[in-house]
Design brief:
Elements (H helix, E strand, L loop, with lengths): L2 H32 L4 H34 L8 H6 L1 H32 L4 H30 L3
Length: 156
């Protein structure tokens, strides 16, 4: 057994679960509670959550992507351009990688846009509603990534 592969895979899964779970919790638990708060409290909480999210989720998501890259290349079968574009596994891996990068960028942009708007005095209810709608795109990204993970598990 190659322990380096085990460790990289385990950490990749742990950080991926943390990132995806954080997005689910934020969208289905925190967001709906936040939107029901009085505007001043909503603004304060949204700013604190955004700041903490950047501090925690950004590194976790980045590590998930880096470890997934390593798991597919250094510790996996994606060792050539021919394999990457010439096999179902390679294409699925590439779709997962690009979707993960896009999902991270979209989620980060959504949080930062909301924070800037709130600091500039924007309407908190409208900003929070927009952020929650934009988060649906992030969840779609996670659905694609998860689908790719399942397909790769079966060699596709």
């Amino acid at each position: 057994m190659d322990w380096a592969v085990v460790v990289v895979q385990w950490l990749h899964m742990l950080f991926g679960i943390f990132w995806f779970g954080g997005a689910l919790f934020g969208n289905f638990v925190l967001g709906p509670v936040l939107i029901k708060q009085p505007p001043d409290r909503m603004r304060e909480l949204a700013l604190l959550l955004g700041e903490q999210g950047d501090r925690v989720i950004l590194p976790v998501a980045t590590l998930t992507i880096v470890l997934g890259f390593l798991r597919g290349t250094v510790f996996g079968p994606v060792r050539s351009i021919e394999f990457l574009f010439g096999t179902a596994y390679g294409i699925t891996w590439l779709v997962a990688l690009l979707t993960a990068i896009g999902t991270l960028a979209w989620g980060s942009m959504t949080v930062r846009t909301m924070r800037r708007a709130l600091l500039a005095g924007a309407d908190i209810t409208g900003s929070t509603g927009t952020a929650l709608r934009n988060a649906g795109i992030e969840l779609l990204g996670f659905a694609v990534i998860l689908s790719c993970m399942v397909l790769m598990r079966f060699g596709l």
